[in-house]
Amino acid sequence: MPTLAFSSQLINLCAALLLLLSFAMLAQRRVLTLVDLFAMQGGTLFVSIIVVAWSTGQPHLYYSAALTLILKVILLPLILHHLIRRLGAQWESETLLNTPITMLAGLLLVIFAFTLAQPISQLANTVTRGTLGIALAVVMLAFLMMITRRKAVTQVIGFLAMENGLFFAATSATYGMPMVVELGVALDVLVSMVILGIFFFHIREQFDSLDLHNMESLKED
Amino acid sequence: MNIVTLITQLTEVILAVVAAPLLMGWVNQCRAWLQNRRGPGVLQPYRQIRKLFHKDAVIAAQASPLFRLVPYVQFASMCLAAAIIPSLWTGLPFAVAADTIALVGLFATARVFLALAAMDIGTAFGSMGARREMLVGFLAEPALLMVFFTASLISHSTSLPTIVETLAQGRLAIYPSLAFAGVAFLMVLLAENARIPVDNPATHLELTMIHEATVLEYSARHLALIEWSVALKLFNYTCIGLALFFPWGLATGAHSLRDLLLAIPITGLKLLVAGFGLALIESLNAKMRIFRAPEFLASAFLLAVLGLLVHLLLGS
Questions:
Q1: How high is the pLDDT of residue B273?
Q2: Taking a C-beta distance cutoff of 8 angstroms, is the pair B109, B76 a contact?
């Protein structure tokens, strides 16, 4: 078995940690812990981007790493904490669907993502191509989280986690997107967070809860 | 040469059997310290076993011969497991006889016999404990197998000494898959040895106990053997964990006497640290409801399978 360079090993470790954190988020009941897990995921992403930038000598990746640090590790978790406090939802925990079954579904998604990414990653010639499957799996697990959750806040966290996965996919497949695109996406995420924050208050005003289940009935009776 | 390996093998087993209650006592002592108590001292399990051996055994009138046999089966299978596990050195002639899968089977055999003995008398607590023990066991076993498979994939062998030799001699490499497997193994260790998130080893409350309920009917020398084998089981599991995930300091390959002698204090030191870590985990966590145990062990299984998948994807 050929031994990889130390930096590739670090990147692989970060990728594995990202996957682990995705599963932890999938199984987490408490909203505030979920936000902390999201911040940790952002932190892991930051470390992995720094390692990629350092090992391949791509200066523009340092900027996107800084962007990740500011936006996903500091700003968004702060906004989410603030929103949850304002909504008075910090002690809420939601009942999940059967956790072992959700986990097994997640496992199947991981297998699917790995097999899907295998031929694609053969085409890439980056040092990080092996981690593409993990990036795809993180995206799919975030999808699964959005599907299985019923509260608005947790669905939004799922959405943000999906963005983490996409960012990681871009880094592992092509050493990151152009700076303009990255800035645009970052701004989009920030703005969507603000708008969704306003939405939370409207939803709660309308239904007296953040449970999106109420929105499924289309007619007022 | 043959005599020498035989002697090392026997020394290893005897050391494991002798030191096992010491590890148990050390864990209990650490727990006592963490709870601001003085604790009974690390030698307490020895005193307990000695006391039990000096008492007269009381056996229920309806007990079948199986009931008398089980403590010996327990103790023997744990001794056999200690012979397979490379806790000090990897040159173990007995280890050729059984690989990791057989080792898991050995633990399963011991568990099945214990459950049978618990149901033998026909008390309600005994059969309840047996059912719970089997529930935990059948969920923990696949996770343990997956952990071993992850390690086997790295070293292309299911023989425990070969796995440990590969892991110990390899250059410093980070295996993400082993990190997953390590967390999964820790969860299995806690569940299989009736430690705190799953079962409370210090409880005597009938409704919450799992392992304790299965041995309620035993007394004197039978109970002593069972307690000894419980300590040996914890010792074995800790040694597997240390050998798989922290294999440094084990005597591998061609042995010189110096290596062999050096391995003993190093393993002792690692066991001290591991015992303290175990006590720390137990002090920081609360016991789960029994119905949360499947969730806990499903997560362990999931982590182990993830380790396997990550290994296949990343090749490391």
A1: 92
A2: no
Largest CA distance in chain A: 67
Distance from the A194 Cα atom to the nearest Cα atom in chain B, whole angstroms: 35
- Spell out the SS3 assignment of B130-179: HHHHHHHHHHHHHHHHHHHHHHHHHHCCCCHHHHHHHHHHCCCCCCHHHH
| N- to C-terminal Cα separation, chain A | 67
- Structural tokens at position B249: 């300091």
Q: Which residues pair with B1 in a beta bridge?
A: none
- pLDDT at residue A2, rounded to an integer: 47
d(CA B304, CA B84): 22
- In 3D space, the residue among A64, A59, A57, A218 whose CA is nearest the CA of residue A127 turns out to be A57
State what percent of residues in chain B have pLDDT above 70: 96
pLDDT beyond 80 at A24? yes
| Entry pTM | 0.84
Q: What is the tens place of the pLDDT at every residue in B127-153?
A: 888 998 899 988 899 999 999 998 888
Q: Is A103–B315 a contact, with Cβ atoms under 8 angstroms apart?
A: no
Q: How far apart are CA A161 and CA A54, in angstroms?
A: 25
Q: pLDDT under 50 in chain B at which residues?
A: none
| Chain A residues 5-24 with a CB less than 8 Å from chain B | 9-10, 12-13, 15-17, 19-20, 23
